[in-house]
Amino acid sequence: MNLRELSQQLGLSQTTVSRALNGYPEVNETTRKRIQDFADHHNYRPNQKAKSLATGKSMLIGHVIPFSTQHEMVNIVFSDFIAGAGEVYSTHGYDMLLSVVNDDNEIRAYSELARKGSVDGVIVHGPTQNDPRIALLQDLKIPFFVHGRSTDATSSYNHLDVNNKRAFSRATEFLLNLGHRRIGLINGLERMDFAQRRRHGYEDALQSAGIMPDPAIMRSAEMTEPFGYAATKELLAADHPPTAFIASSIVPALGARRAIEERALTVGKDVSIICFDDAISYMPNGEGEPIFTATRSSVRDAGRRCAELLIGVIQNPDAPPVAELWEAELVVGQSTGPAPKKA
């Protein structure tokens, strides 16, 4: 159905129907609702360019990804976040603008988005400690929402994060309660704020149990399966190997499992693994009983929620900053068991 046919069936002029659907203020609310309901029933959507001209909005949400963080962000975790956010964007009539830029151009990219009015808001990914993007976006006065937190940021800002420190503290305590005393850490890149918080949670739990954290059994790199494999293989070959590992993602946890099984050891019996599980749609942690014991929080749900909250900020830019902190759920799977007696 086109605009002319829609107008004929409603008994209204094309101008009135177009203005109602594109957000012009002079159409009264009763008429607007009647037109919108009829259009929805017939799956009619107005021209997006016309709507943007009427509302002064681009109806685009920006995501800026520098080349150096593609490995960390443009992966299955990032994809699931984008899928969740995209569901909300679509419901509210927004599209997504994904910009992959050179690191040297990242700040310029945000400035250009603001100067050109290319987007109505942006989501910031992978915050670092004292992340400079937060102050920049506040100065640019562009609505933004941070997925994660930035330690040492000097002002309030909109964000949603998982309690990463508590998640890894609980994971470490779980292994300690099973009798493990030599627990290795396979962490993400520790220039990222979430990885710093996870290491602090791990170290605090060890110290509370009277165990000094040992840097010799901590590894930090891109959260890939080969990294998990290489780190675990190296640590298992040491004179005093860990009896358990905590991994920052299910992806390196898979590599850790491969390294353990390569040594003819049994996961959950000879060596335990616990990981952070983003509940990735295309890599579920088993069906029914989880494969890995894990601290779990859905990244797709986080994508949906960040998108909802950002749209709220766009619609009400003078509202106080929004901050949400989610607790991860601890799920017990097949990958953990009591520390081996020989240890």
Secondary-structure-derived class: alpha/beta
Shape designation: elongated
Question: Proportion of β residues?
Answer: 15-25%
**Spatial strand arrangement across the major sheet:** 2-1-3-4-5-11
Order of helices and strands: HHHHEHHEHEHEEHEHEHEHEEHEE
How many strands, what sense, and barrel or not for the largest sheet?
A: 6 strands, parallel
Radius of gyration: 24 Å
Distance between the termini: 72 Å
Specify the number of helices: 13
Kindly state the number of beta strands. 12
What do the pLDDT scores average to? 90
Which percent bin holds the helix content?
40-55%
Low-confidence stretches: none
Explain this structure to me?
The protein is an alpha/beta fold and 343 residues long. 43% of the residues lie in helices and 16% in strands. The protein has 13 helices and twelve strands. The strands form two sheets. Strands 2-1-3-4-5-11 form a six-stranded parallel beta sheet, sandwiched between helices. 41% of the residues are buried. The model has no long low-confidence stretch (mean pLDDT 90).
